[in-house]
């Protein structure tokens, strides 16, 4: 007898109908060869009342990656392109993000935070009986979590990670068609993620091939297309994992002509960062805009499985920003060392002052040292200690242009303007203002235009 046939009746009297795994899987229509025109129809239905009467964009075939979003007319910098609600959201299951209710995202108490219906998901008292939680609760209880009898309450991030995928099965038919129409990388790590999650249950339907194939595909779609978006609830901020199909269809450029931000984790807002001509492809970035060439391309290779070929990636100075730069290690020289080649993940490095060439392995060690040192400080230091570290200690081993040091400066800006509520001295506020101007100058050199990061730094987006 299959796991689906052993399902208990729905609790609470709601949610009638056939909710077996086989029935849910059968409605995931195989529309992966969807044409751009068919995809556009699915997107229109998904946008609903947010679809503009005469949109300034359209979906069409792209030479970059199969299909993309294009301007139907000239679009001015700063102009709204579209808004989109998340098709589905779920927890990121990151460390430090496990103490929020999976439905309302309020902070949970230190004890008694697991669902009282014993699905072992972290959910508040109010949401435990909600219609939103009912179907997923039944799935998890049906699969029998192994730690349901544990004496000490704890959230299992492996099982929590697949919650977003489970929620996809309970979307409407057209919505599920849209998920299945999206691109998904066939990455082995995605299968391992599901296998590891399955091991957290006593009765996971691993023998149901139709269901497992569909689950593998959904996880692939999510890992390829989902965004992490901040959500604030009751003065508490957490990260949500959301699928925004239209936003995800936009192709990547390292300095894109469009920029997006999220409102409370559930609404994506996309605006033009620069003027976009009629017929031009509307692009976004899949990386952080201030990462170095090498860091961006390693990330894209590992997570998106492609190498970027944009103009920025072919310029080893990155428009004179020198985000990759490290100090020369030659005695008596304090010049900047930057990668020579731009199309390899293990380039040679050359000093622009003494012109000595260094192997990548040697420079990678220095970069890792800077990265680890600064990240350790970010995670443990007060704002005052971070300012001292950036101003007094970092210049000894890291040029001010290096992207890791730029991340540290951004950390100070965020903490002083968005998270901390303590009073700062005029001197400390002066340092923050200087960091802000330095970051804005780099964005200007990159040609980032009216990007989201600029608007966050200048307070245009809260």
Given helix and strand content, the structural type is alpha+beta
Per DSSP E runs of 2 or more residues, the count of β-strands stands at: 14
How many DSSP helices?
Answer: 16
Topology pattern, helix = H, strand = E: HHEEEEHHHHHHHEEHEEEEHEEEEHHHHH
Q: Tell the overall outline.
A: globular
Query: What proportion strand?
Result: 5-15%
Strand order of the largest sheet: 1-2-10-7
Number of domains: 3
Distance between the termini: 54 Å
Range of helix content: 25-40%
Largest sheet, in brief, is: 4 strands, mixed
On the 0 to 100 scale, the average pLDDT is 86
Rg, alpha carbons: 24 Å
Folded structure, characterized:
The protein has 462 residues and is α+β, with helices and mostly antiparallel strands. The protein has three domains: 177 residues, no CATH class; 84 residues, Beta-clip-like; 164 residues, Serine Threonine Protein Phosphatase 5, Tetratricopeptide repeat (Alpha Horseshoe). The protein is 38% helix and 14% strand. The strands form four sheets. A four-stranded mixed beta sheet has the order 1-2-10-7. Strands 11-12-13-14 form a four-stranded antiparallel beta sheet. Strands 3-9-8 form a three-stranded antiparallel beta sheet. Strand 11 and strand 12 form a beta hairpin. Helix 2 packs across helix 7 and helix 12 runs parallel beside helix 14. The protein is globular. The N terminus is likely disordered.
